[in-house]
Amino acid sequence: MEFKTPDVNATLSLMEIVKDGIQKLTGLYKHIHCIELELYEQVIHDQGSKFALCKIGFDKGSFTLHHNSSHYEDALLDTFDRACEYMVAI
């Protein structure tokens, strides 16, 4: 994950969300091989929207989830919540 900001607190907040999300996922399913996260911003009709994309590889396959929000934190939280729901369902 690559993220650049002059605000150290914002970076720490995002990293805490990532750490908690990975702990939740690996607590639900032990055979995760890789997790790839991408954060990006897209401007649509003069409004910025933050996107979080999460690719997860595990012993039974892989899947990709994404979510957008006005804040990176919300996009990441929702993406990890959806990933946990998926892992519980398999």
Structure explained in plain terms:
By secondary structure, the protein is an alpha+beta fold. It has one domain: Double Stranded RNA Binding Domain. The protein contains 2 helices and 3 strands. The protein has helices spanning about 10-30, 70-90, and strands at about 30-45, 45-60, 60-70. Helix 1 (about 10-30) runs parallel beside helix 2 (about 70-90). The radius of gyration is 14 Å and the shape is globular.
Which SSEs are present, and which pair or pack?
Elements (H helix, E strand, L loop, with lengths): L7 H21 L3 E13 L2 E12 L2 E9 L2 H18 L1
Antiparallel strand pairs: 1-2, 2-3
Helix pairs in contact: 1-2
Feature tags:
3-stranded antiparallel beta sheet; globular; Double Stranded RNA Binding Domain; 90 residues; alpha+beta; 2 helices
Which residue ranges are poorly predicted, with pLDDT under 50 across at least 5 consecutive positions? none
Count of runs of 4 or more consecutive helical residues: 2
Total separate domains: 1
User: Under CATH, the topology is which?
Assistant: Double Stranded RNA Binding Domain
Q: Assess the beta-strand content as a share of residues.
A: 35-45%
The CA-CA distance between the termini, in Å, is 26 Å
Strand order across the biggest sheet? 1-2-3
How is the biggest beta sheet arranged? 3 strands, antiparallel
The CATH superfamily is known as Ribosome hibernation promotion factor-like
The gross shape turns out to be globular
CATH architecture heading? 2-Layer Sandwich
Secondary-structure element order, as H and E?
HEEEH
- Radius of gyration, Cα only, in angstroms? 14 Å
